[in-house]
Amino acid sequence: MINEISASILSADLLNLESEIKKLEKSGVDMLHFDVMDGIFVNNITFGLPVLEQMLNKTELVLDVHLMITDPLKYIREFAAAGADIITFHIESESDTMETIKEIQKANTRIAVALKPNTPAESVFQYIQYLDMVLVMTVEPGFGGQSFMDMSEKIRKIRKYADETGCNIDIQVDGGINAETAPIVKNAGANILVSGSYLFKAENMSDTVRKLKD
Ligand code: DX5
Ligand code: ZN
């Protein structure tokens, strides 16, 4: 079942972010997905702490921060202080995974680990008991608007392992989500969808959110 939609503001009209956020709130999305890129971990640079801080004062929606940065450990405290409700970092980053998890625990936000398309499901198993969410990337991180890569097997393995070990985690999917790809990841066991370009291109955002949830 798809419980929640996290709207990737990377595809929003960034010079009118406040009105975009109001539009998203009305459309029934549950979270705002905030893609932080440092130009080193991925080949793109986006936005960071000052933007998040300002967003915090403008919305009650859950702030879902996806860190695509080389050394997330260094910035956990600051992203939590700027308003992150969920902090997702990449297992492929240079920070020690367990240390970063502990730092997020201290910061008192939800904890999530992201996996790039070539990273196997098994790499997250030893950490799953500490996590609230696993983010399975269905594109190479870096840009919005790319085409979906089918990661159903990986999602199934993570869902199965979590169920078997009694861990009640969310599985979020990010990249290329639309009306055709949403059922694929949902059937595999994902329950939170990130949507960027598809949502912002929609003529009717509320209908699109409803469609994605169904
Ligand atoms: C890609 C980002 C995604 C992106 C999704 O690196 O992590 O969150 O904004 O955009 P769409 O939905 O257009 O693939
Ligand atoms: Zn993302």
Task: Explain the overall architecture.
This protein has 214 residues and is of the alpha/beta class. The chain has helices at residues 17-27, 49-56, 76-81, 97-107, 152-164, 182-188, 197-201, 205-213, and strands at 4-8, 31-37, 62-68, 86-90, 110-115, 133-137, 170-174, 192-195. An eight-stranded parallel barrel has the order 1-2-3-4-5-6-7-8. The longest helix is centred in the C-terminal third of the chain and has 13 residues, at 152-164. The site of zinc ion has 6 residues, from β2.
How would you concisely characterize the structure shown here?
This protein is α/β, with parallel strands linked by helices and 214 residues long.
Q: Return the string of H and E elements.
A: EHEHEHEHEEHEHEHH
Shape: globular
What is the arithmetic mean of pLDDT?
Answer: 97
Ligands in the model, by name, code or SMILES, are: D-xylitol-5-phosphate, zinc ion
Question: Sheet with the most strands?
Answer: 8 strands, parallel, barrel
State the helix count.
Answer: 8
What is the subunit organization of this protein?
single chain
Low-confidence stretches: none
Give the strand content.
Answer: 15-25%
Structural class: alpha/beta
* Intertermini distance: 8 Å
Biggest sheet: strand arrangement: 1-2-3-4-5-6-7-8
Radius of gyration: 16 Å
Helix content: 25-40%
Let me know the number of strands: 8
